[in-house]
Every structure is written in C-alpha cells, then in structure tokens.
Amino acid sequence: MFFDGLTYSSIGRNLAEGKGSFWSPYYTEFVYPTFYEHPPLAFGIQAMFFYLFGDLFFLEKLYNLLFTLSALYFVVRLWSIFSMRRTAWFPLLLLLCIPVFHWTFKNNMLEVYVTMFTLLSVIFYVNGIRNHSLLNIGLGSIWCLAAFLTKGPVGLFPLVTIIAYCWIFSVRRLMITRLLIQWTCFLIPLFLIAWFFPASIDHMKQYFHTQVFASLQNQREITASFRFQILFELMLELSIPILFLILSRINKISIERKKLKATAFLLLIGICASVPLIISLKQRKFYLAPSLPYYCMAVALMSWPLIENTVDLIRQKYVNITRLTTLAILTGSLIIMVKNYGSISRDKEIMSCVQRLPNREANFISKPSSISECQNWTLVAYIMRYRKVSIYCDDLNSSLCD
After folding, report:
1. DSSP states of 266-317 as a string?
2. How far apart are CA 306 and CA 150, in angstroms?
3. How many CB atoms lie within 10 A of CB 114?
4. pLDDT for residue 22
5. Assign residue 389 a region: left if phi > 0, alpha if psi is -120 to 50, beta otherwise?
6. Which of 116, 154, 180, 234 makes the best surface tag, with the fewest CB within 10 Å?
7. pTM of the predicted structure, to 2 decimals
8. pLDDT value of residue 100
9. Coil vs helix vs strand at 167
10. Rounded to an integer, what distance in angstroms lies between the CA atom of residue 326 and that of residue 335?
11. Binned average pLDDT, 10 residues per bin, the chain of 402 residues
C-alpha cells in the first residue's frame, strides 16, 4: 500500500487504541506526534473500524472495499436523477477504466472519503432543488462539511451545486432561499464544533498554516513543473471517456435538450472539483479522484445513444450469456481476492524487513536535526503500521533490518 494510506491507517489504529485524540491525532513518537497535515474526520472513521474489528492485517482493504462499493452506489444514485437507472453500468464502466480511480481507492487515500461525501452532498442538493426540500439542502451541506473536515478546501466544490443547477436548468425561483439554507447548515455546525471543541480551532489553524497556506506559496512538496500539469494528467486519465466522446461527435449523435443540460451541469461540477488544483504546484494525480465520477457521467450521457442499439440487441439476444459472463467475472474476482489475502505484492523488501522486527512497541532513535531530513517515509509508515514502532529515519539503512 502507498505510504500515505499506511500513515492514515496507523493514525486511525492509534486513535482506536487511545493514543492521541480526535483533534490531536498521533502518528509516531518522533514523526508527527501530533498530525496536523489534514483534518481528522477520516482518521476517526478508520478508528471506528479498528475499534470494532481489531488490528487486522488487511483491515484497510476491507473497509476500502466497502467505501468503493458505497461510492459506486452513490454514482448510480446521481446518475438515476438524470437518466435511466438500468444504464448506470455505463458511467461505472468508464469510471473503473480510469487507472488513478481504482489506485486511489485501493491505497486508502483521503480522496476516497472526499469522493463519497461530495457525491452525497451533490445528490442531496439536487434532490433538494427538484423536490423543493430544504431538509435535503441542509443535509447536502452537512455532507459537504464532512468532506471539508476530511481534506479541507478541496472538499468544498459541492457548494457550487445550487447555483450551477438553478442556472443551467433555469429554476431560479427560491434560489436565494436555498443558498441561505445551504450556507446556514454549513456554517452553524462548523461554529458549533469550534464552540464545543476548542481543540478543533488549534488543529485547523495548524492545518491551514502548515499545509494549505504553505502549499499555496509553493513551500511544500513541489511535484509539478507548471501549474496546468494536473489538467494534462486529467486528460490522460480520461482517455477512454474522451474516446467515446470523440466517436459520438464523429457519428453526429444527437442528444435531447434535457440530457444536454444535465451534461453541462455534471461537467461544471467536475471542473469545479479539478481545475482549482492548478493554484498550487503540489499536484498529484490522485487529487483528481473526486472529480472523475462527474466527468464520466457527463460523457456517458452524451455517448449513450452511440451504444444504445448495440446494448439493446445484446440484452435481447444474449441475456443469458451476459449474465453468466458477469457471474463468472464476479466469482473469479472473489476467488483471486481470497487467494491473495495476506500476500504481499508491493514493497516486498520493506515488508520482509518489518516482519523481522520484534512485535512490540519500541523506539529506534537516530535523531535528525529536523523532520524534513527524514528520507524513508515508506519504511516509517510500514514499521508503525505493522510493528507499532516509532523511529527516526535520519540514517535508516539495511542495518535496521540486519
């Protein structure tokens, strides 16, 4: 597993075992004894799983599978608002063809939670407008707040949903009232959290200072050579959906006006979730994960007429073959998952090193002058996750594992 995911699960496990607290998450004794790199909601959720099921070797895989299925279900729910539910497999297929999407969900990244919470937020906002339900709009803000408390400002893009939907679908009546409810239900819980949990203020101050503002000033990890690099990465990840879109244009596929508006709405949400990432040179492909469902649904709406006749023919003539193929794929996937349970497919040398260490809490101290000198974050993450050992990694080398 990618070391970020191991770090997050270690923090969640530590929290479940009483080390640290929700607003003062504990990573290791020496590296981030108080973890201010992100808001703590995701760590609290993971802590509940560790508390209920114990420190299982593959627990991250189990709850990430649950979260993956949840996110895919939410995509189906949002798709069903704009199109027939029985065609929801198409945007799901496009989504699962994107490498960074399943990589993100497999590696326990915070974007998993942001994707789930923001999908729920958009669903509730849209249903609130369509059904004239202020309660749904309020719940949409709660889910948006959950995304914010998971990874900060990148989870706020659902707040554009009401304006975008009312503008594109020309339902501007009561828009101001809906916006007031939206912001009230977002800000009041945030104020109540600050009021009843003063430690939350310190945590968020530290988070914005050390992570957000530093990233905006390009004082954190610089992973992009230019600001628009993340958008080129987005185009590459969306290669297959874009191919369907091109084929639709070549074949001059027409789309009804209502679907065209839905496409514009979904594209706008996807843009709001991805384009603001250019503000910093700290860019990674998995940051795009929360935006991908909206792009895939937009492309699927425009491309569905291209494949509709073929799909109907297959459904009518080869329904049994289709069902058997689907069942075979699911069964094969389950068999492979069970067979590989407990096996190590990544960082085998590091895991071999970790497994030779004693299974006890200890401190390997090799003190650097600052945390920034720590070079081997992956080894730190593995040793904390699987041996509960806090180390300094100023001069970590093979001697630790000899």
Report:
1. HHHHHHHHHGGGGGSS---GGGGGGGHHHHHHHHHHHHHHHHHHHHHHHHHH
2. 39
3. 26
4. 94
5. beta
6. 180
7. 0.89
8. 93
9. helix
10. 14
11. 85 92 89 90 94 86 89 95 88 91 90 96 96 94 97 96 93 88 96 95 94 86 85 93 87 82 95 94 92 95 80 64 65 61 59 62 46 61 78 52 50
Tokens for 402, please give them. Answer: 């000899």
Type of residue at 256: E
Give the residue carrying structure tokens 């987005």. 234
Q: Two tokens at 74?
A: 């939410």
20: DSSP letter: E
* Pairwise CA distance, residues 314 & 296, whole Å: 23
Q: At a CB cut-off of 8 Å and minimum separation 6, what does 58 contact?
A: 341, 342
Q: Are 43 and 148 in contact (CB under 8 A)?
A: no
For the CA atoms of the chain, what is the radius of gyration?
23
Length of the chain: 402
d(CA 15, CA 9): 10
Tokens of 105: 């969900």
d(CA 211, CA 151): 10
Q: How many CA atoms lie within 13 A of 89 on its CB side?
A: 6
> What's the token pair of residue 65?
């599978």
Quote the tokens at residue 42.
Answer: 């995701």
Q: Helices 377-387 and 3-16: crossing angle, nearest 10°?
A: 30
Query: CB-based contacts of 242: which residues, under 8 Å, 6+ apart?
Result: 235, 299
DSSP label at 154?
G
